[in-house]
Amino acid sequence: MLNLAKENKEAITDFDELLFAIWFHDIIYKSRSKRNEKRSAKYAIKKLKNFNLKELKRDKIYKLILSTKKHKILVNKDLDNAFLLDFDLAILGKDWEIYKAYTQKIRKEYKMFPNFLYRPARKKVLQGFLDRETLYFTEKYKNLFEEKARENLQKELNLYN
């Protein structure tokens, strides 16, 4: 995600804030928790409280991190939030072998759940993405990844049928 941010630096309004959001967005992560993003956002603000940048927009960082929970834009004054979410889902649009390795890591992350619980939950996540009008928010990443991402998601979903 950091590399993608650097690649798009000229199009990002608040580059430092976006970098902090990327860095902190999964800093607190427990696979069973539904509060990871909120905890990560609070942690980021706490750690950045005494940061020596007067211009740092901490509220924006907080909202950017929260936006990763449901992958919905919360900050729409510029394209920063769109880029953050697109960077987060960039893996979906990679070649199948890279995507497949990613899915294996996800399965390992949720290894505490037997297949009869994991599979229906994973299918629901995949279908939720497929039901979206678009997966990506910026034209750049729609053009780069949308088609391949949908193909990968559908291919993975078919594995569970």
TrEMBL record:
SUPFAM superfamilies xrefs: HD-domain/PDEase-like
Protein name according to UniProt: Metal-dependent HD superfamily phosphohydrolase
Organism, as annotated: Polaribacter batillariae
InterPro entries: HD_phosphohydro
